[in-house]
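Entry type: protein chain
Record version: 2
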Amino acid sequence: MKTKTIYERLDQIIPKITDPSFRQNKGLGNEIGFYIFDYEPKYEMLVREHIAFIKQKLNTESSDFYIREFDLYEVMLEILDSKGYLQKNFELEQKRGSDFILKATKKALRLTLNNDLVVQYIAERVQPNDIVFLTGVGKVYPIIRSHTILNNLHKVLDYVPVVMFFPGSYDGLELVLFDEIKDDNYYRAFQLIDKYA
């Protein structure tokens, strides 16, 4: 089995997501599919550039769907800023340290709770004809964990496909961020583009 290059895999994203069956694809529990595009962390900038290219190419007036990207890091900053917590976080980190801020930020975002602010933020902005791209996974770690956001989004986004761009590896069961940090198991997502030809 030959391993595809990152370029070969990136080139296969547009044909995959523009296939009409992609938006009808049902997951294991008959919900719309969640997908992971995993890649070696050294290709982060290349992947970011390609996502921008995909959005520029596909988000046109003639398209019958829209790529809606959520950079989880930017989402987190926007939520904290809107609540007036961002400046407080900087000040508290000086006084109390990073561990304190990590816990306080998770609590402020209500992560893993039913009213998780990141999940709410995304759900409120998604339209029925969207394909959701989740990015910024590496930047937002360890505050937001990939398996947590996927589990929580599954409860509210069951009508549009979701693609998480993941700097690490996913084997259909295990998410390993940066190929070093093992996240909890996550088995509901499909590999967007296979690594092997």
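Comment: Residues 87 and 114 are 26 Å apart (CA to CA).
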